[in-house]
Amino acid sequence: MELDRPRVAANAAHVLSERAVRLAEIHVYPVKGARGVALDRTDVLAGGLRHDRRFMLLDADGVFLTQRTVPKLARLTTALEGDFLVLGAEGLGNAAVPLAAEAHEGPRRRVRVWDDEVDAVVVGGEAAELCAEHLHAHCTLVYMPPDVVRPVEAPFGQAGDRVGFADAYPVLVATRASLADLNARLAAPVPMDRFRPNLVIDGGEAFEEDRYARVRVGLQTFRMPKRCARCTVTTVDQATGAVGKEPLRTLATYRADGNKVYFAQNAIPDLEGSVAVGDDVEYLEPL
Prior knowledge:
The protein is mainly beta. It is 14% helix and 36% strand. A hairpin with an 8-residue loop joins strand 1 (22-28) and strand 2. The longest helix is centred in the first third of the chain and has 15 residues, at 5-19.
């Protein structure tokens, strides 16, 4: 029997396409702890993806706020509209903040992110008022200017590595295969937003990302020096702010090492460049 060669070729191409590893999602979180923004493409800077965690909220003592202690932050929405960051909260409307560094040249103050103290510019006006009203607490909105250098967590960074207001690393990489593995163990599956990644990869094996030291996304490469230790933020429903026990409880049964639980990879750009949804992904340097 003669083979239908065009059909065989089409089927083979389909199989190869299904096995391809590609960048499926890009997310930035302009305000640390607040809701993120999905993008089709973005610039990769030394300190992370453009506009990612350049703003942060402080308590009365100048200490950063996150969903660990203020889960209601999950309901503070963000949007990138032209040259502005637009913050929103249910029942309170919206307020815009300029994104350009030149718009934030006011007085600076020292702020704390974990063990790091850095300079930041206080952002006043309607956006700050909206945040305080949404949280029902005194808080201050601040911006990290590009000349402020906060080094990546030692000893995993190299000279020149920097990070904005993210916890410790400029980029977080997660994979759909690893999430599927986790969700197969849960009574109720959770969406990827529980882990607040920057880059989401589709294709490959569950936790394949753990077995490599670097990853290439399109023309951009990233070092992956350390798995990401997860906290109670993963138990916060990003749509409602409600707090539960999963997926952290289940992750602890098979992704624990010592007293920490791991999911996704911290990443550091090798050079500045750009990434786009659909970019081919290749893992490099097996461990």
